[in-house]
């Protein structure tokens, strides 16, 4: 064993895996695809792209939307659903 083997194994483990599900691309098309994937991954790594999702604002959640006023009386319960005569 030499000291270079673990580094090669690490690079193989980090290489993107692409599965072709249709068609028969040429070697040039596969190389171009891998080059694009490698460029995107390098750009994200350089930008420190730890994908951060924006915080959820529960105050603007649809469940907090204003509702129609329910007036007490005969049929008020079914009228609050928006269905009359049920």
The string of secondary-structure elements, in order, is HHH
Number of helices: 3
Rounded radius of gyration (Å): 29 Å
**Unreliably modeled segments:** none
Shape: elongated
Estimate percent helicity.
40-55%
In terms of DSSP E residues, the strand content is under 5%
Termini separation comes to 81 Å
Number of domains: 1
| Structural class category | mainly alpha
The average pLDDT score comes to 73
* Major pleated sheet: none
Overall strand count: 0
What layout of secondary structure does this protein have?
Elements: H1 4-14, H2 27-46, H3 76-79
Protein name: Acyl-CoA carboxylase subunit epsilon
GO molecular function: acetyl-CoA carboxylase activity; propionyl-CoA carboxylase activity
InterPro entries: ACC_epsilon (IPR032716)
What's this entry about, in short?
This is Acyl-CoA carboxylase subunit epsilon. The protein is mainly α and 86 residues long.
Description:
This protein has 86 residues and is mainly alpha-helical. The chain has one domain. Helices cover 41% and strands 0% of the residues.
Task: Name the features.
86 residues, mainly alpha, 41% helix, elongated
């Amino acid at each position: 064993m030499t000291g270079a083997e673990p580094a090669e194994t690490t690079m193989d483990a980090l290489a993107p895996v692409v599965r072709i599900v249709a068609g028969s691309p040429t070697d040039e098309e596969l190389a171009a695809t891998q080059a694009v994937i490698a460029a995107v991954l390098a750009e994200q790594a350089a930008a420190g792209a730890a994908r951060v999702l924006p915080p959820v604002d529960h105050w603007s959640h649809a469940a907090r939307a204003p509702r129609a006023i329910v007036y007490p009386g005969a049929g008020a319960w079914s009228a609050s659903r928006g269905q009359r005569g049920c």
